[in-house]
Amino acid sequence: SDGGKLLVVPMVGSHWLSMQEVVEKLSERGHEVVVLVPEVSWQMKTTQAYKVVTHPVSQTLEELDNSF
Name one GO molecular function term (predicted). Predict the structure, then answer.
């Protein structure tokens, strides 16, 4: 199929680990993928498979840790 554009706004948490694989596969198949991630997160790392755009958040990593 023709590649399309996809904006992904995942929430911090374990579901991103399985979602990341799907996003990478879509990118491999020609889709232009942009993933919007918070500046403070645990498991959301950058990759060359898709474009990552960060956005500021008011929460620090320590506050994020304490909330869980």
Answer: UDP-glycosyltransferase activity
* Positive or negative torsion for Cα 60, 61, 63, 64: positive
What the block records as the tokens of 36 is 């919007």
Q: Which residue has the tokens 């199929």?
A: 1
Query: Beta strand pairing status for 51-55 and 32-38?
Result: parallel
Structurally, how many domains does the chain consist of? 1
Q: What are the φ/ψ torsions at residue 4 (nearest 5 degrees)?
A: -120, -175
Residue among 1, 62, 43 nearest 26 (CA): 1
> pLDDT digit string (tens) for 8-66?
888 766 677 778 888 889 999 889 999 988 877 766 666 788 898 888 888 777 887 77
